[in-house]
Amino acid sequence: AQHIPLQHITGRAYFMGYEFCVDERVLVPRQDTEVLVETALTHLKDSRSPKVLDMCTGSGCILLSLLMERQDASGTGVDISEGALAVAKQNRVHLQLDLFSGGYFKKNSGNTVTEYDMLISNPPYIPSGEIPGLMEEVRSHDPVLALDGKEDGLFFYSERNDRFISTARESDSPFPAYFRNTLRTVDYSSFYKEIP
């Protein structure tokens, strides 16, 4: 048996009650990740027209679900995988959503720094050495780029990301730096690209 995920066979997965296109270029959205979206929605409940940056957006399911639930919100999804961004674009079009572009915001606001109210991410976090032990459905069919957090699983959180995050001011949030309000970003385009 090839252990191909059903979602790859049908090309569809459901997340937060919405249908998303999926294939071998992106992770199949997991139900437990819905908790991240639900927590983000609770955290943003008092924010008016929040702007959200989704790092490692993959299929776009996290950001696009947030935008479906908060019609006043805007967001930018970024990823290093061109294939993932193509799938995220399919999902954006399927859900009939427009995305907020960091480049557009900088160009039209006169600001030299793009400001977001929230950074949200479900980055690769599995240590490289653990990938061979994953279920075959994951190991053989999910993109390694979206799984592999390098040696200790913490590559995304490393100093390398200082290239595009200049300031993450502390807030009352109980969440770690990847999930904090009042985030400012510098130009991340040399490393990550936006959902088209």
Question: Can you characterise this structure?
Answer:
By secondary structure, this protein is an alpha/beta fold. Helix content is 27%, strand content 19%. The protein has 7 helices and 8 strands. Strand 1 and strand 2 (18-21) form a beta hairpin. The chain starts with 5 loop residues before the first helix and ends with a strand. Mean pLDDT is 76; it is low at 101-112 and 163-191.
Summary keywords:
alpha/beta; globular; 6-stranded mixed beta sheet; two-stranded antiparallel ribbon
Report the span from N to C terminus. 36 Å
Q: Structural class, from secondary structure content?
A: alpha/beta
Helix content: 25-40%
Adjacency order of strands in the biggest sheet: 6-7-5-3-4-8
Oligomer: single chain
| Low-pLDDT runs | 101-112, 163-191
Order of helices and strands: HEEHEHEHHEHHEEE
Biggest β-sheet description: 6 strands, mixed
Question: Could you report the average pLDDT, rounded to the nearest whole number?
Answer: 76
What's the total count of β strands? 8
Indicate the radius of gyration in whole angstroms.
16 Å
Query: Judging from the principal axes of the Cα atoms, what is the shape?
Result: globular
Q: How much of the residues is beta strand, in percent?
A: 15-25%
Count, helices? 7
